[in-house]
Structure formats: C-alpha cells, structure tokens
C-alpha cells in the first residue's frame, strides 16, 4: 500500500521543458480567418443585393415631339352600325328560294329570296279578269248609247213635223241619258278593276324579298320550305326574317364615358381608335355627338365617334379603345414645353411634386413642376428632360439614392 508520502510525491508539478510548438496550427488558424472573411464579404454582397428595391419605370416623352396632340381621356367601347336591318317579307308565305349567304355583299334592290307566289298569282289573275269584264261592259253600253242618241235625234226631227208624239221623244231622251249614266258607271268600275289589278301586282311583287340598301349579309335566317311572316304569329315554327344586312359604310364607335370625365369631351374632338383585335393599328376618328342623356345605373354618358378610315377588318361589335385627343396646335404655333409621364410617377415629397429619376442602379428624388392631367399621363413643365427614366408608383420605402432594380412599364 502507498503511504501518504508517496501520494504527496505524485502531486508534485513536473517543471521539465516540453516539446517545441508546431507551425502547422498557425497556418490552419490563418486559413480559417481568411475563409470567414471571404464568407462575410459574400454574405454582405448578397445581403446588399437583396436590399435593391424592385420598381417599374417609364420614359418621359416630350410634349413638343411632332406637335402631336396629347390624350386627355381614354375609354373603351364597341363598333356599331348605324344602318343595319333584318330583312323580312311584307306578307306571310312559304320560302321558295334563298339567294344569300353570310359574308355576301348585296346591292340595293337585289333579290335576296322569293316566296311561293301561287296565291298572289291567282289573285292577280282574278283582278285581270274583273278588269276585262269591266272594259267589256263599257263597250256594250257605248254601243247602246250610240243607238239611243241616234234615235233621240231622229225623233226630235220628226216631232217638229208632228209625225211622232212628244211622249215618244221624251222617252228616247230618257233612254239616252240613262245609257250615258251607265257608261259613266262602267268606266268607274273599270277604273276600280284596274286599281285592283295594280294591288294584285304589288301582292305578286311582295313575294320577292329585295335588299333595302347596299351592304353585307351577316346572318341568314331562313331556308327554303319555311314559313316567314313579318309578325311572329306562328311561334317557333315561323321565321320573322330572311337575313340581316349591315351597311359597312355606316360603322362608328359608341363609347360610354363616366359622368366625372364627360366635361373633357367636345364635339368634333379628334380621337384615336385602336381595335382590340389589331392593337398596332391607330385609326383616326372624330367625335360626332354626345348623347344628351345619362345611364343612371352605370353613371355614364354615351358618345358617338366617327371612324375616318373604312376597312374590311372593321366589323360590328368589335371592342375598341379610344383616346380623346387635344386639338392639334395651329400651324406655326410655338411647341409645347415640358414632358409627359405616367400620372402615377408624380408623388408628393415634403409638400411638393417630385419624381424618382433612375440613373444606372440608383433612384434620384427630384422636385418638378407638374401640370395638368393628360388622360392616364401628367404634364411635367420643368425639372425633367425628355428621355429620362422615371419610377412609376414608387414604393413608400424608396428613398433618395436608393438602389433599385428596374422593369420598363
């Protein structure tokens, strides 16, 4: 067993010199410090990149560019035809032939369809027979009248010689006058028969359906064998029309403008129309009239716009976007100063109008002198040059000289 003295000797501190330190650990420490520094720089760079504010931008356009009129209001509407008709027969009848198809152009008076003319032809034949009978009656009465007049003249000559009695003369004169009255009645009957024949001719003509004006067929509604009528008396089995035609020269645009903005629209105001189907085609137009009534439900006023270009691509019921333009400046007038930018680009900072101008990757807050609205845009009279890029709808956290990432509007 160990004694206490042995245990105390074991607790004694060894003061002998140890082995010399190795340089390998020093290089490892320096490598770790360098790696941490690189990771810190990379993290700072990534963090700073994530701090860039994403914004939408637009380019300032000079108001004097080409002296082009600016838009004061944008609205949407539809192409409508002022002259459109569903053509029907004037009488009820069975369709015998249809001569139209969708997309076909017809001229005024061109036959579109014919109805079965059996009844009309029979009525015309009857009227013609009645007229012939009336004319035969005229000839018979004229022959009798000629005989009666000759008899009356002969008896009047004999009564002076006292060869016949006065009673015989009076009877001959009465017979003559009665025949004259019969002749007048026969002539009137013949006139009535002639009028009846002309009406029958109209009835025959009514079995032919003609185009009331020149246009393009947009719908074919009847087929041979169907019954057509100007009135829908036969329910679903009776057609009320042969087809629908549209005068393409009468196409115009109807636009619903909000009551709050109708004051910007004036008659004869220039308009630029864009069909939704052809967004790159700008059609010159002009305001025809402002309809003097409002839609209570939609709080809008209808405006009629005339298209100055006629083209087969324009068809009824197409959607249209129109821009009501300022009147073009007079020739020789001074160019307008300033630029136009989206209205959402102009903000209030420190009680003044300002815009954020993007240069490189930073946004500069710049105070400007803003003017009136031009539709969805706004005038900037000073403080901004044409071609500069501005921020649209700048976020509230966007500050002067902030880093931004841009996307053109």
From TrEMBL:
Record keywords: Coiled coil, Membrane, Transmembrane, Transmembrane helix
Coiled coil, from the record: 131-189
Domain named Multidrug resistance protein MdtA-like barrel-sandwich hybrid: residues: 83-229
Positions of transmembrane segments: 26-47
InterPro entries recorded: Beta-barrel_RND_2 (IPR058792), MdtA-like_BSH (IPR058625), RND_pump_MFP (IPR006143), YknX-like_C (IPR058637)
Pfam families hit by this protein: Beta-barrel_RND_2 (PF25954), BSH_RND (PF25917), YknX_C (PF25989)
Entry keyword annotation includes Transmembrane: yes
Ranges of residues in domain YknX-like C-terminal permuted SH3-like: 339-405
Presence of keyword Oxidoreductase: no
Gene3D superfamilies, sorted: 2.40.30.170, 2.40.420.20, 2.40.50.100, Helix hairpin bin
CusB-like beta-barrel domain mapped to chain residues: 253-325
Family stated for the protein in its record: Belongs to the membrane fusion protein (MFP) (TC 8.A.1) family.
Protein name (Swiss-Prot/TrEMBL): Efflux RND transporter periplasmic adaptor subunit
Classification of source organism: Bacteria, Pseudomonadati, Pseudomonadota, Gammaproteobacteria, Lysobacterales
């Amino acid at each position: 067993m160990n004694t206490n003295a042995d245990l105390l000797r074991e607790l004694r501190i060894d003061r002998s010199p140890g082995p010399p330190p190795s340089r390998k650990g020093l290089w490892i420490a320096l490598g770790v410090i360098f790696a941490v520094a690189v990771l810190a720089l990379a993290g700072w760079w990534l963090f700073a990149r994530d701090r860039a504010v994403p914004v939408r931008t637009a380019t300032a356009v000079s108001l004097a560019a080409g002296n082009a009129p600016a838009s004061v209001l944008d609205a949407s509407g539809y192409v409508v035809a002022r002259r459109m008709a569903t053509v029907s027969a004037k009488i009820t009848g069975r369709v015998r032939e249809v001569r139209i198809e969708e997309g076909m152009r017809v001229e005024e008076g061109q036959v579109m369809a014919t109805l079965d003319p059996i009844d009309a032809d029979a009525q015309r034949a009857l009227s013609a027979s009645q007229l012939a009978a009336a004319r035969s009656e005229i000839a018979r009465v004229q022959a009798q009248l000629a005989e009666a007049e000759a008899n009356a003249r002969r008896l009047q000559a004999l009564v002076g010689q006292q060869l016949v009695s006065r009673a015989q003369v009076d009877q001959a004169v009465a017979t003559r006058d009665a025949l004259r009255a019969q002749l007048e009645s026969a002539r009137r009957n013949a006139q009535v028969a002639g009028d009846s024949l002309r009406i029958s001719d109209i009835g025959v003509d009514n079995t032919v359906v003609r185009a009331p004006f020149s246009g393009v067929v947009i719908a074919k509604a009847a087929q041979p064998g169907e019954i057509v009528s100007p009135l829908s008396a036969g329910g679903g089995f009776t057609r009320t029309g042969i087809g629908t035609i549209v005068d393409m020269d009468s196409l115009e645009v109807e636009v619903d403008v909000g009551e709050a903005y109708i004051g910007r629209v004036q008659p004869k105001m220039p308009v630029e129309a864009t069909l939704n189907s052809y967004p790159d085609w700008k059609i010159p137009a002009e305001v025809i009239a402002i309809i003097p009534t409002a839609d209570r439900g939609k709080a809008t006023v209808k405006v009629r716009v005339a298209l100055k270009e006629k083209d087969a691509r324009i068809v009824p019921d197409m959607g249209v976007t129109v821009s009501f333009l300022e009147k073009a400046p007079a020739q020789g007038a001074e160019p307008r100063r300033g630029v136009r930018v989206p209205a959402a680009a102009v903000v209030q900072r420190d009680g003044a109008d300002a815009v954020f101008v993007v240069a490189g990757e930073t946004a500069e807050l710049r105070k400007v002198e803003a003017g009136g609205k031009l539709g969805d845009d706004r005038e900037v009279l000073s403080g901004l040059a044409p071609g500069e890029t501005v921020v649209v709808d700048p976020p509230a956290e966007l500050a002067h000289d902030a880093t931004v990432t841009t996307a053109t509007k």
